[in-house]
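Issue 218. Parser rejects a valid record. Input:
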Amino acid sequence: MIIIIPKQSSTSPPKNNFHQSAIISPSKSILNIGKGDLRKIWKSKQRNLKMDKLKVLNLYAGIGGNRKLWTDVDVTAVEMNPEIAAIYSDLYPQDKMIIGDAHAYLLEHFKDFDFIWASPPCPTHSRFNNLNQKNIKYPDMALYQEIIVLQHFFEGKYCIENVITYYDPLIKPFESNSHYFWANFKFRQFPNEKRGIRRQEHDFRYNRVGIDLSKYNLEIRFEKQIINNCVEPEIALHILNCPRGVMEAENINQPQLF
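Output the parser choked on:
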């Protein structure tokens, strides 16, 4: 499903009830239920929770390198470039694709999701792109705006990914696999590797991402760019699974009623 929205849209995904549906607390209505019946109710709630898909917002989605290995997820992806969005939707037809401004969409809809992944544009932060002293640009502060909003107002789990910056980051990140990450949970550190810029490095990274773009007849420079912008699927899967385990444990933690 592809949805094209203007920059300031009020369209919102349906409200998620993942957390609320998984909570049981003592009340007058259940005090007269026998222990056996209460255990049956609790087991039923656990089964329903396991059937629920994690609601994921995938911002600046690109062609979905990070998305490739995710399972049991209900994904809304946001991508500005229609050509890239079309490839993503071809690869992941089950996801909802929003063609529009990811930065604006996040502020309007972040409360509707359990997990948020964001990979904001990196050129103004990159060490490579800031070697040219003749074309100095202000760093795009949208990166830090998103981190601050999620840190203070989002009740779910989030991960924001970007390049290693040419300046000391304004908010301390976690470094892994030659990337910076800002997240409200812990995950394993992966060794730093070269980014796919030269031909041989591009081939290596192409194989690591494992997405075949040959049928799209893309201009080679554009193909390199969108592949190099991908987060490797195995790393993104590990990052998603870490908070997912925490959230499931929190939501099926049986209250001490007995």
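Fixed in the parser; the record now loads. Residues 233-251 form the longest helix (19 residues).
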